[in-house]
Amino acid sequence: MPEERSIEQVLDTIGDENAREILAAISIEPRSAKELAEECDLSLPTVYRRIEILEENELVKDRTLVADDGNHYKIYESNFDSTVISLEEEGEYRVRIYREENLPDRFSQLWDELNPE
Fold first, then answer.
1. How many alpha carbons lie under 13 Å from residue 73 in its C-beta half-sphere?
2. What is the pTM (predicted TM-score) of this model?
């Protein structure tokens, strides 16, 4: 099943232009904070603040890599495939965040719905 989040959390996070720029950049390929700062024309502290918010909302994940000189650094990548915001019958909004690892669960759920016992 898709993961549900409060509409306020998701909209506040993706409502920030800098956060959207970072998400757009890492949706193409994982990048380090330094690469994001250069590509998005943002200061490094701004990049780190936005990444922290994106991580808190589980929209970004990080991996640690080792450089040729032995230093460690993190790269950031998108942690979701799509987000759907819908208006429910009760007049409430619902946010669903679809992640790649949810695909087998979504298939199983669809299969169960099509083949009730």
1. 13
2. 0.70
